[in-house]
Amino acid sequence: MKTSKGFASDNYSGTHPKILEAIQKANLGHASAYGNDEYTAKAVKKFKEHFGKDVDVYFVYNGTGANVLGLKTVTESFNSIICAETAHLNVDECCAPEKFTGCKLLTVPTNDGKISVEKLKHHVYGFGDQHHAQPKVISITQPTELGTLYTLKEVKELVDYAHKNNMLLHVDGARLSNAAASLNKSLKEITFDLGVDVLSFGGTKNGMMFGEAVIFRKKELSRDFAFIRKQGMQLASKMRFISSQFEELLSNDLWLKNAQHSNKMAKTLADEVKNIPKIKITQKVEASGVFAIVPKQYVPNLQEEYFFYVWNEQISEVRWMCSFDTTEDDIRDFVALLKKIVK
């Protein structure tokens, strides 16, 4: 059985040893179910240390659940949600946002995964018109699906515009740790200090086995989330096995160290491949992903040895993702093969 590492996704990685130890400790004895346990209480405390004492935190199994349930909590079925056309909400969640929120997704064209006020404001109209979907949420991904980063100024501009129009800003932060590491800012500084209203915070892509968090800036926004989570089939009975992972991840800067490492590996990979003839890097490498055009004829042979995704088949753009356990040897071996095949 092949066990070599690839560059398809940080979801493909294993679980960090310290996280495994935390799960094993949580496995000793019995604990109350559905989050009424000491592990969940400790994890929530950790989140408040990182994101602010007034935030309201809930744990779910996966990123789609975090995004959809967080959005459902702050919307009605007659609302619209504005996002980039490349957003995970739009591309990779099998219409779950529309199905479970009932909202209309309005997408914004983008070349780098980012949206701006200028790009989205044509969707913001018709307030009070009973014939028109009522704009309610602007959703961004940080880092974006193309590995690029919003600056703090860009996020603040979107927040201010949303609030000016009685709307909210949601952040899909499946890789938020990578953004904070790259921006050299705290988790709070790049989210709630800027006025972000709802955040999906990822654990799975940063060394956890499973588990994500939904965080609301204030309790007024999370009004019925506990019931919505139950209806949405994301309430874990043995929640301590999610909570214990988050407590460990948010302790001793493990979240940061993991993210810094995967970011560094992506930079290393980009530096190694950028001078290879016929390879063209297409996006700024600002987090843990590298996007590049590789001539189609070479892709199958590369994928036989290293799994990765073709992101855009029309132009043969591929995505190479690094993770907390990517090593320089992994990159060196991959680049050696790339040089051998792409002549």
Could you characterize the architecture of this molecule?
- The protein has two domains: 17-249, Aspartate Aminotransferase, domain 2 (3-Layer(aba) Sandwich); 254-341, Aspartate Aminotransferase, domain 1.
- The protein has helices at residues 17-26, 38-51, 63-73, 88-91, 96-101, 117-120, 152-164, 176-183, 225-231, 240-249, 254-273, 299-305, 328-341, and strands at residues 56-60, 79-84, 104-108, 134-141, 168-173, 198-202, 212-216, 280-281, 289-293, 309-312, 317-321.
- It contains 13 helices and eleven strands.
- With 343 residues, it is of the alpha/beta class.
- It is globular.
- The model has no long low-confidence stretch (mean pLDDT 97).
- α2 (38-51) runs parallel beside α10 (240-249).
- β8 and β9 form a beta hairpin.
Main sheet, how many strands, which sense, barrel?
Answer: 7 strands, mixed
User: What class, by secondary structure content?
Assistant: alpha/beta
The count of domains is 2
Strand order of the largest sheet: 1-7-6-5-4-2-3
Q: Secondary structure elements and their pairing?
A:
Blueprint (H helix, E strand, L loop, with lengths): L16 H10 L11 H14 L4 E5 L2 H11 L5 E6 L3 H4 L4 H6 L2 E5 L8 H4 L13 E8 L10 H13 L3 E6 L2 H8 L14 E5 L9 E5 L8 H7 L8 H10 L4 H20 L6 E2 L7 E5 L5 H7 L3 E4 L4 E5 L6 H14 L2
Parallel strand pairs: 2-3, 2-4, 4-5, 5-6
Antiparallel strand pairs: 1-7, 6-7, 8-9, 9-11, 10-11
Helix pairs in contact: 1-10, 2-10, 8-11, 11-13
